[in-house]
Amino acid sequence: MLDPGNDKELPPIPAKRYFTIGEVSELCGVKPHVLRYWEQEFDQLKPVKRRGNRRYYQRGDVIMIRQIRNLLYEQGFTISGARQKLEGEHASDDFDRSQQIIRQVRTELEEVLQVLKR
Fold first, then answer.
1. pLDDT tens per residue across span 47-78
2. Among 71, 89, 95, 116, which residue has the least CB neighbours within 10 Å?
3. How far apart are CA 64 and CA 117, in angstroms?
4. Tell me, what's the pLDDT at 99?
């Protein structure tokens, strides 16, 4: 799963339902053309496509992209190796993803609490 230590350099994921490819690019530190390429390489990435074939990513997609980014850029996996690792982690993936979402929501709520205390 995505190492929370590496996640610190990336901005927090806003509480939105859908994200454009430009927003995801900024949230994950990856250029849009790389995201489009990864969609072809990783079956787990399936953004919703609407009018004009525009992509709309959900929170789970953003987390998956961060995980792929971590595997490729931080841990040095090849595309094929990252794909195999993600497929091998499929059983524990839902649990790990929910744990990461819980940590992210908790961090965001703590930030909101700090703002409200001021």
1. 999 888 899 999 999 999 999 999 999 999 99
2. 116
3. 33
4. 80
> Count of domains in the chain?
1
The Cα-based distances of 91 to 45, 64, 83, 94, 97 in angstroms read: 17, 15, 14, 7, 11
Please give the C-alpha separations between residue 95 and each of 5, 23, 84, 92, in angstroms, as whole numbers.
19, 26, 18, 5
CATH no. for residue 8? 1.10.1660.10
Give the global pTM: 0.68
Range of the domain at 73: 4-117
